[in-house]
UniProtKB/TrEMBL annotation:
Signal sequence residues: 1-18
Top-level taxon of the source organism: Eukaryota
UniProt entry keywords in alphabetical sequence: Signal
Protein's name in the database: Uncharacterized protein
Length: 179
């Protein structure tokens, strides 16, 4: 996870240093090397199913790992995934050829537009991260999570996944992306 986070930070800094003007979609063109990194990072994350809640949860062993560590690990992945999604929404790849020829591990259906984002809301198959107050908790974090385990489990059911909003927020025939 630390390597992926480091690559994501590099991509964010590349966007900040870019002097490309924003288009109507509020996106910037990434230089060649960061474009290659972004495409590789997204494909790797899709291949490892890092955007799919059951796969995220499978990385941990309930009963062996303390609940607080499981919660922290899941929340770390969710926040990374959302950050990567935001970078993908803000960046354009310098060369559309980078998107050709490689396998597509995305669960979304239908053709992908070369001008479109590498990630879609339909790729985000997990619920929104938990509220920030738990991140700012002091030594009683484990007790709060253990006492609220059922509520946390219920928040992560498929009906609450971000991908469920794609029908409303990103219809297929619409060119402008709202989120």
């Amino acid at each position: 996870m630390a390597t992926y986070q480091g690559i994501l930070l590099h991509l964010i800094f590349s966007l900040l240093l870019s002097h490309d003007k924003l288009d109507l979609q509020l996106t910037q063109v990434l230089p060649e090397v960061p474009s290659q990194l972004l495409v590789s990072l997204v494909r790797t994350c899709l291949k490892r199913r890092m955007f799919f809640y059951p796969s995220i949860l499978a990385q941990f062993k309930p009963g062996f790992d303390p609940d607080v560590f499981i919660w922290l690990g899941i929340e770390e992945v969710k926040r990374f995934d959302l950050s990567l999604y935001k970078v993908c929404r803000h960046a354009r790849i310098c060369d559309a050829k980078l998107l050709e020829g490689a396998p597509d591990f995305s669960p979304r259906r239908g053709p992908r537009s070369l001008s479109g984002s590498l990630l879609s809301l339909t790729d985000l198959q997990f619920s929104v991260p938990d509220r920030d107050e738990l991140w700012h908790a002091t030594s009683d974090l484990a007790a709060k999570i253990t006492g609220n385990e059922a509520a946390y489990t219920n928040e992560n059911i498929e009906d609450n996944w971000i991908s469920q909003t794609a029908r409303v927020l990103q219809p297929r025939d619409q060119q402008f992306q709202w989120i």
